[in-house]
Amino acid sequence: MTYVVFGMYCREDKEGLFFIVNSRKKVDLWPRVVEHCHPDTTVICTDSAKSYVGVEKQFNEEAQHKKVNHSKGEYVQKTDKKNHINSIENQNRILKATILSRKSKKLITQYMALYYYRRTRLQNFDFGKQISLLIEDIRKVYPGPGLTGLTLKHLDDPTPSSTGIEHLMPKQRKRKSSTNKKSSKKSKPVKEVAPPVEGPMTPVEGQMLTIEEELAIINFGQDEWDSIEAFQ
After folding, report:
1. b/e 26-61 (16+ beta carbons within 10 angstroms → b)
2. What is d(CA 218, CA 213) in angstroms, rounded to the nearest whole number?
3. What does the alpha-carbon distance between residue 185 and residue 28 come to, in Å, rounded to a whole number?
4. Quick one: pLDDT band at residue 163, thresholds 50, 70, 90?
């Protein structure tokens, strides 16, 4: 089974967010882009995936959408050195290397939480300080008998089925009917998709990336990667 993780990364403050989503389609990605990327974003860099076509229209009139074509071996545009998605690809690589088991969404979410904790809480300290912080945080989560410890905060992150986000959804294009054409291809069985899992990587309430963001997709199970970055 393939699990899709959608990530956002800010080039300016080097902060990132990750979400497990239903699919790589616009209806699953765009609401999160608008919800967590700064409205004043002016440049968005992505690969050439169709899911990102028109995403710049979700921001101000000056927003630009720049793309690199990985299928043609293009990772940094020669005429524009800022047009790349290497920063988020690096974060994807590090995150993916920490996930030792991909048997369930619950396990992936736990590994994501561990990665995020190490990166945001422990990374900038020496080993002794890291141990002290870890013990301190364990005490906050497990304060003792009869006491309530800290818990992870789960937010109702926007999904295609959420109400009140119609303005965040991409416009649906009408497709021409092909009823007159005969096809010899056998129809593929419908694949059920589990609802998105919002785990420990869900950002705190009100958290938003700043002007320069990057977004990425990780397909666990198939080892496929797509990414998008944004900056001013």
Report:
1. bbbbbbbbbbbbbeebbbbbbbeeebbeebbebbee
2. 17
3. 28
4. low
Taking the CA of residue 126 as centre, how many other CA atoms within 13 Å lie in the half-sphere pointing to its CB? 1
Q: How far is CA 55 from CA 37, 40, 42, 157, 208, in A?
A: 12, 13, 11, 19, 17
Using N-to-C axis directions, what is the helix angle for 105-117 and 86-98, rounded to 10°? 110
**What pLDDT does residue 60 have?**
87
What lies within 8 Å, CB to CB, of 164 at 6+ separation is none
More confident residue, 125 or 106: 125
